[in-house]
Write a structure and sequence with these properties.
Elements: E1 29-36, E2 43-50, H1 56-69, E3 74-78, H2 87-94, E4 99-103, H3 113-125, H4 133-148, H5 151-160
Parallel strand pairs: 3-4
Antiparallel strand pairs: 1-2
Helix pairs in contact: 3-5
């Protein structure tokens, strides 16, 4: 959102840091996936950013794009969000035998490596104050590119989750 996330920061003693901004609730919605190769040697990050709310249509488009980039069978782990349900999406998944969907338990962000991605992104963007949605989008794109090129970060997101330790070998 254009309303900045405020986090604790450093400042000279006695000088409270101020983050000045206009109160505009314009936002960017994101859909993303942390991927792990079958051989457990490569991790990846795929992100789609939208200036509108994400619906089943965007989820389907994201999955299509993901399938274009990944070979072999794909296991998708996702939460129970309403955008992950619906007749069109069920039909799309039924017609893609390469994809198997597994759902996380009702509320289990600690199992989802993607939650660690967005916690990291929010921390990196904290105390910033983009003036426009385009400026926020540019910051998100640059951050996404930087993190996607960092196997250390991506492995950390997976290892930081409470998933079974399949990457630790």
């Amino acid at each position: 959102m254009l309303v900045p996330t405020v986090r604790r920061t450093w400042a000279p003693r006695g000088e409270t840091p101020l983050v000045r901004h206009s109160y505009e609730r314009t936002k960017i919605s994101a859909i993303s996936a942390v991927t792990v190769s079958p051989r457990r040697r490569r991790v990846g990050l795929y992100v789609h950013l939208h200036q509108e709310n994400i619906s089943q249509t965007e989820v389907e488009y994201f999955l299509r794009d993901l399938l274009r980039h990944l070979r072999g069978n794909v296991i998708v782990l996702w939460d129970g969000a309403s955008i992950h349900k619906g007749a069109e999406l069920v039909e799309f998944l039924r017609s893609r035998p390469r994809v198997r969907v597994e759902s996380f338990p009702g509320y289990a962000p600690e199992l989802n490596p993607d939650e660690f991605v967005w916690s990291y992104f929010k921390a990196e963007l904290a105390n910033g104050r983009p003036e426009t949605i385009d400026e926020l989008m540019s910051s998100l794109v640059a951050l996404t590119k930087r993190v996607a090129k960092s196997p250390r970060h991506l492995r950390g997101f997976v290892l930081g989750s409470d998933l079974p330790p399949f990457l630790s070998s």
